[in-house]
Amino acid sequence: MDNQEPRPVPPKPAAQPTAGLPQVAVPATAVEPPARKPRRVASTLLKTVFVVVLLGVVGGLVWLAVWLDSRAPETTGDGGSVIVETSPTPLATPLPLPREGVEPPGYRLGDCFKDFDAEALRSTVVACDTGHSAQLVAVFRYPAVGSYPGREALAAKALEACQAAKLGPAANEYTLNFQRAYPSSTSWESGDRRVDCYVTADGGNVINASALP
């Protein structure tokens, strides 16, 4: 044992051996992308505001269309308008009263009639604060162009006119009835397009005030 020579120590390798070992790449320093979350939130907020404004505009346009449509004259299958005249339009120069021999085309909304007969060809128009038996309280006018709607359709339209009539407080002081008048096929061919609604009193010329407001 004493005669053994010491074993030489091998020199250290210049670099650690890599043979047979897995190659692991050293990751490069990661570069963080610019923060986009705040930008995305801002973009979403702008989109939300835009959508809300757009919905508000659309809603306003829809409301305006409905409002305009509610004010526009509606048409019916018979070519007429559902607008019924219920408020008289004063003349710049009032016509003298009384006026005798007035024909139906000359009747004006609000006129009061003495000894009224709806089938008469002429009537006497008087002041509404004097004795009278009828007053024209609603008028419906068909378009000038169109075929004769028929008696039933005209009667129904006259009923609509009477239902639309707006009576004032004075009407409650009398016993009044609604009376309708509308064109015949003959008068229609002559250009008569008006449907009238009257209030009448059975007792003769007992009304001394306008039935309209």
Radius of gyration: 47 Å
Unreliable stretches: 24-44, 66-79
Name the average pLDDT: 79
Q: Shape from CA axes?
A: globular
Decide which structural class fits the backbone.
alpha+beta
- In which order are the strands of the major sheet placed? 1-3-2-4-6-5
Percent strand equals 15-25%
- H/E element sequence: HEEEEHEHE
Question: N- to C-terminal separation?
Answer: 145 Å
| Count of helical regions | 3
Strand element count = 6
Q: How much helix, percentage-wise, in residues?
A: 25-40%
For the largest beta-sheet, the strand count, sense and barrel status come to: 6 strands, antiparallel
Biased composition (Low complexity): 15-24
Region (Disordered): 1-24, 74-98
Domain Septum formation-related: 108-197
Transmembrane segments: 45-68
